[in-house]
Automatic annotation (TrEMBL):
<keyword id="KW-0285">Flavoprotein</keyword>
<keyword id="KW-0560">Oxidoreductase</keyword>
<feature type="binding site">
    <location>
        <position position="278"/>
    </location>
    <ligand>
        <name>NAD(+)</name>
    </ligand>
</feature>
<dbReference type="GO" id="GO:0004148">
    <property type="term" value="F:dihydrolipoyl dehydrogenase (NADH) activity"/>
</dbReference>
<dbReference type="Pfam" id="PF02852">
    <property type="entry name" value="Pyr_redox_dim"/>
</dbReference>
<feature type="binding site">
    <location>
        <position position="211"/>
    </location>
    <ligand>
        <name>NAD(+)</name>
    </ligand>
</feature>
<feature type="binding site">
    <location>
        <position position="122"/>
    </location>
    <ligand>
        <name>FAD</name>
    </ligand>
</feature>
<dbReference type="InterPro" id="IPR023753">
    <property type="entry name" value="FAD/NAD-binding_dom"/>
</dbReference>
<dbReference type="InterPro" id="IPR036188">
    <property type="entry name" value="FAD/NAD-bd_sf"/>
</dbReference>
<dbReference type="GO" id="GO:0005737">
    <property type="term" value="C:cytoplasm"/>
</dbReference>
<keyword id="KW-0520">NAD</keyword>
<dbReference type="GO" id="GO:0006103">
    <property type="term" value="P:2-oxoglutarate metabolic process"/>
</dbReference>
<dbReference type="InterPro" id="IPR001100">
    <property type="entry name" value="Pyr_nuc-diS_OxRdtase"/>
</dbReference>
<protein>
    <recommendedName>
        <fullName>Dihydrolipoyl dehydrogenase</fullName>
        <ecNumber>1.8.1.4</ecNumber>
    </recommendedName>
</protein>
<keyword id="KW-0547">Nucleotide-binding</keyword>
<feature type="domain" description="Pyridine nucleotide-disulphide oxidoreductase dimerisation">
    <location>
        <begin position="353"/>
        <end position="462"/>
    </location>
</feature>
<dbReference type="InterPro" id="IPR016156">
    <property type="entry name" value="FAD/NAD-linked_Rdtase_dimer_sf"/>
</dbReference>
Length: 479
């Protein structure tokens, strides 16, 4: 093992491994430090996202939806099936195989790009030195010209519901429940809580979601959020807003949860409880006292727009820094930093980072909500069209939800796009591309969209912003 590197990346998640690969592609002698041990008791790259986050949760979401469809939704398509049973062990094995294949693929990419994978922990010290402690061995001090901090985040713990990974679990434990709980509680109606709650509801759990705030998905355009809540409730999720959990007690393999809302104090008993109240930057042991890196009041590492810390040559990316805790944001920051190190002026456009909730229907958004546009005081217009007016959605039996645009009334520029409905995670990219190129609503109106396709709803929503929609009846807003 060398003692000196051009670049040392601490963290092998989406931001870290991509940064390492891009640095190596640019000719830099690069090492990546990662400590994770996977379920097979082997060192693994990919971070939270690939191992216990984005990928395994999507595998379960897709598998559970197929189970749900087979149970009740295929008959209307003329597909008749006999008794349907659940093999949860096989479902988990499939999920774990996908994770293993993807994380193993990153290891192969490291070899192909000549990235040195250092298995263990890393701590930034003064003068861009990194103390590397192997998983099995003594610590060693390494020197780098550049250091990229990419340690990611961990679930937030709350004292009123201490996680034991048996009865009370976090997002990681919720991916590996050995059997379907008869009654499942979820603390937190955010992205993670809704996705995991959806998985187990489809597999047969009675799911109650307790959310402390009074507004459902407050960061989402509220027209979209209200429709989402309506559809998830119809699917069986019992979403209780303004419900602040005050305590929990495990009793004989069950958990009694106390919470308070506008009607007073309540108690519910669950077979399992998922704590999904957010994530926090993982900085434990990452920085020595003399590292010189500044943290803000919420313990995020302070960086500029190109992810430079206060220490020249030291960068921080992903969940460690400001902005949404999203894998794709971390990935693009990793690429940006690698190219900045080489003297390029690459810049992530933080105004066009999309967000997605992989429930069914999916929810996705980019840019400003109508509430944000209204609060700005600038004149704006909106175009909204439901999937119920779309032939492709109807043919697929996926007519719930809508596409919505928010645009500047004066300049006609697209300010935001919001979707709840089929393939929202894919459709939202049309809004991302439009905003990235400074498109106007008229630009989208003049484009030809394939027929029949879900994308036609994007076209119709753009037309609707100027009362030109063909396939929905519109009433002009009163001035």
């Amino acid at each position: 093992m060398a003692d000196n590197y051009d670049v040392i990346v601490i963290g092998g998640g989406p931001g870290g491994y991509v940064a390492a690969i891009r640095c190596a592609q640019l000719g830099l002698n690069t090492a990546c430090i990662e400590k994770r041990i996977n379920k097979q008791d082997q060192p693994a790259l990919g971070g939270t996202c690939l191992n216990v986050g984005c990928i395994p949760s999507k595998a379960l979401l897709d598998s559970s939806w197929k189970y749900h469809e087979t149970q009740g939704a295929l008959a209307e398509h003329g597909v008749k099936v006999g008794d349907v049973s659940l093999d949860l062990d096989t479902m988990h094995k499939r999920k774990d195989t996908i994770v293993k294949n993807l994380t193993g693929g990153i290891a192969q990419l490291f070899k192909a790009n000549k990235v040195t994978w250092l298995q263990g922990t890393g701590q930034l010290k003064a003068n861009k030195q990194v103390e590397f402690t192997p998983l099995d061995g003594d610590a060693q001090v390494l020197q780098a010209e550049h250091v990229i901090l990419a340690a990611g985040s961990v679930p937030v713990d709350i004292p009123v519901a201490p996680v034991d990974q048996k009865v009370i679990v976090d997002s990681t434990g919720a991916l590996d429940l050995p059997k379907v709980p008869k009654r499942l509680g979820v603390i937190g109606a955010g992205v993670i809580g809704l996705e995991l709650g959806s998985v187990w509801a489809r597999l047969g759990s009675e799911v109650v979601v307790l959310e402390a705030v009074d507004t459902f998905l407050p960061a989402v355009d509220q027209q979209i959020a209200k429709d989402t809540q309506k559809q998830l409730t119809k699917q069986g999720l019992d979403i209780r807003l303004g419900a602040r959990v005050t305590g929990s007690e495990v009793k004989k393999d069950k958990v009694e949860v106390s919470y308070a809302d506008g009607d007073g104090d309540h108690q519910e008993t669950f077979d399992r409880l998922i704590v999904a109240v957010g994530r926090r930057p993982y900085t434990e042991g990452l920085l020595s006292q003399d590292a010189g890196v500044t943290l803000d009041e919420r313990h995020y590492i302070y960086v500029d727009s190109q992810c430079r810390t206060d220490v020249p040559g030291v960068y921080a990316i992903g969940d460690l820094v400001r902005g949404p805790a999203l894998a794709h944001k971390a990935i693009e920051e990793g690429v940006m930093v690698a190219e900045v190190i080489m003297g390029e002026s690459t810049q992530v456009n933080y105004d066009t980072v999309p967000s997605v909730i992989y429930t069914h229907p999916e929810v996705a958004w980019v840019g400003k909500t109508e509430e944000e546009a209204k609060a700005s005081g600038e004149a704006y217009k909106t175009g909204v069209v439901p999937f119920a007016a779309n032939g492709r959605a109807m043919a697929a039996g996926e007519t719930g939800g809508m596409v919505k645009f928010v645009a500047d009334e004066k300049t006609d520029r697209v300010l935001g796009m919001h979707v709840v409905g089929p393939q929202a995670s894919e459709l939202i990219q049309q809004g991302v591309v439009a905003m990235e190129f400074g498109a106007t609503i008229e630009d989208l109106q003049l484009m030809v969209f394939g027929h029949p396709s879900l994308s036609e709803t994007v076209h119709e929503a753009a037309l609707a912003a100027d009362f030109k929609a063909i396939h929905v009846a519109q009433r002009r807003r009163k001035k």
